[in-house]
Design brief:
Layout: E1 11-14, H1 16-23, H2 34-46, E2 54-58, H3 64-71, E3 76-81, H4 84-87, E4 94-97, E5 110-115, H5 126-135, E6 136-147, H6 149-153, E7 159-161, E8 167-170, H7 177-187, E9 190-195, E10 214-220
Parallel strand pairs: 1-8, 2-3, 2-5, 3-4, 5-6
Antiparallel strand pairs: 6-10, 7-8, 9-10
Amino acid sequence: MKNLLGSGEAAAPLSSVDAYAQWAAHYPPHAHNALMQAEEACMLALLPDMTGQTVLDLAGGTGRYGHIAMQRGAARVICTDNSIDMLAHNALDTRIGADMDALPMRPACMDGIICALAIGHLKRVDAAMQEIARVLRPGGWALVSDFHPYAYMNGARRTFTGSDGRAREVEHYVHALSSVINVGHDAGLRLEAVREPGVPDAVAPPAMRGKPVVVAYRFAKP
């Protein structure tokens, strides 16, 4: 999942749906490891003013960013996820079971979208980025983060500890930064910022010290 930099010693990767079903009951709605803390600090720095806005927490799981949006003045937050188990542990008022690439929403209905550490579970990001662009209003914004390709290429894996105490790897697909940017452009989104944070050297494996573990993109819909 979003545990930091597993070494690849886990069993065969689980699908994201199966993995989150196993972890949902113990998955807190806050940044609970160094990777997520680095990602969240970066994303918060990129967030615009959300006062009075309607915000989509896309693939939001237990609602980490949905809660942040409400605390920062959003008028309404909708959380979608394809894991019903995760949504069952989400305290937000509006939760919808849905895939990232098939949102049950009308066009131009969202002021902002946050999609955190989720696109790596998709083999392709085209349809998801097209859906983000479709449901955003003109002038809207989208923040999208992902496990950094550099981290994966250097042996880091998305893992969690199963109920049997064993590390389990979650399926992950590497998306080059240029690919995500180009797909966003093709969908009608304008790139405004890219950030590539790392984690403190004290908790990073030697190969990842001073290197990025997460990438965050901010897009706008003209």
